[in-house]
Amino acid sequence: MKLQRLLQYVGWPVAAGIIIALLSLILFPQLRAQHNSLATTSYGSGPVSYADAVSHAAPAVVNIYTEKKVLQRAPGYYNNPYYRHFYNNSNTPLQERMQKTLGSGVIVDDRGLILTNNHVINGADKIQVLLYDGRVTSAELVGIDAENDIAVLKIKLDKLFAINVDQPNNIRVGDVVLAIGNPFGVGQSVSQGIVSATGRWNLGINDSENFIQTDAAINPGNSGGALIDARGNLIGINTAQLDETTAASVGISFAVPAEIAMKSLKQIVEFGEVRRIWLGISAEQLSTKGVEVYGTGGMIVTGIEPNAPADKAGLKPNDVITHINGIAVTDGHTVKNLVADIELGSEIKIRILREGKVLELIAVAKMQPSNHTQT
C-alpha cells in the first residue's frame, strides 16, 4: 500500500515533465536542431590541437650554434665606467676571443640542405647543428642571399627528415601558423598565432622585402626556424620581430615566404649565387598630382645606367612605366618583384607613356654585373 502511494506521489511530476518536454519539442523545433548539432560534434572536427602539425614539422627544425673570432680591446671589465675613468685604455692591446651566437634552421632536403637566416651565420668561423634526434654535426656554408637574409647550409648525415614545403599562394590572412625554433637557447619550442598580413615591405630589415607578418612569437634564437601552417607545411623562414632591441616578442614578427627562400636555395645550389634581373633604372612613383597630369599610375624614370638593359631597350628619363609584361606597375616594390621572377635572357615587355603616346619597349633580362652572391 505504501509503495502504491509512493508511485502515485512520484508518477505525476514525472509524467508532467515528459509531457512538457514533448510539447516543447513540438512548439519549438529549433531545440531539436540544437540537440542534433551538439550530438554530431566530434573531437576531430575543430582545431582542438596542433600536435599533428608539430610532429610533422619539428623533426626538420634544427638548432644552430656559431662561433667567430672577434677582437676586443680589454677583458670584460673594460666596459666598466670606473675602469675607463681611472685608466687610459686607449693603448690597451686588442685581444682575440670567440663570440658565440645561436639560431635555428630548417632541413628542406634529405641530402642535408638547410635554410636559415644570413644574420644567424654571418661571419661565422664555425657552425654546429643540433638535430631534433640529438645528433650534433658541423655544417658547411653553401652560399647566401644577403638581400633576402637567407643562407644555405649543408650537413653530411644519413636518415635526415626534410620538411614539406607548402604550395605558393596558399597563405591567407587569418590562417593559423606555428613558429618552431630555439628561442633564447632554451631548446626547441613552438609558438602559435595567425597570419596578420602578407607582402609586407619598406620595413628596413632587408634589401628585398616581401614578408609574411604574424603574431606568433619570434624571439631571439627563433631566427632561421620554421613558420608552418596548421598541417605542418613550411610557409616561411622566421626572420625578425618588429623591435629587435626588446627582450621579448611584441606580437609583430616577420618571416621570409618559403617560396622566396626556396628560389634562393635552388639558385645558390645550381649557380653558386642568386641571379637577380637588373633593368638599370632609377624611378619614382607618380604622386597624386602626377597621376592627374599623366592620366595613369606608374613609375616615372629619373635616371638610366649606360648600357643597361633599359638603356638598350630605348627607355629615356621622364618616361612613365605603366606595365611590365602586361602587369600594371604601382610602385617600386612591384617593379622589383615583377623583374625578379623573369628568367635570365628572356624578353621584358615594358609599356611606357612618352609625351602622351603609349609605347611598348623590349628589354633583355640580364644580371647586374656587380650582383654576386657570396659563397
Task: Please outline what is shown here.
Helices cover 24% and strands 34% of the residues. With 375 residues, the protein is α+β, with helices and mostly antiparallel strands.
Structural write-up:
The protein is of the alpha+beta class. Among the domains are: 2-41, no CATH class; 176-265, Beta Barrel (Thrombin, subunit H), CATH 2.40.10.10; 277-367, Pdz3 Domain. Helices cover 24% and strands 34% of the residues. It has helices at residues 2-27, 30-40, 51-57, 81-86, 118-121, 258-271, 288-294, 309-313, 332-340, and strands at residues 61-72, 95-109, 113-117, 126-130, 136-138, 140-145, 150-154, 176-181, 189-200, 211-214, 226-229, 234-241, 253-257, 277-278, 281-285, 299-304, 320-324, 327-328, 347-354, 357-364, 366-367. The strands form 4 sheets. The chain has a 7-stranded antiparallel β-sheet. The radius of gyration is 30 Å and the shape is flat. It starts with a helix and ends in an 8-residue tail after the last strand.
- Taking the alpha carbons of the first and last residues, their distance comes to 100 Å
Order of helices and strands: HHHEHEEHEEEEEEEEEEHEEHEHEEHEEE
Overall body shape: flat
What is the CATH architecture assignment of the domain at 277-367? Roll
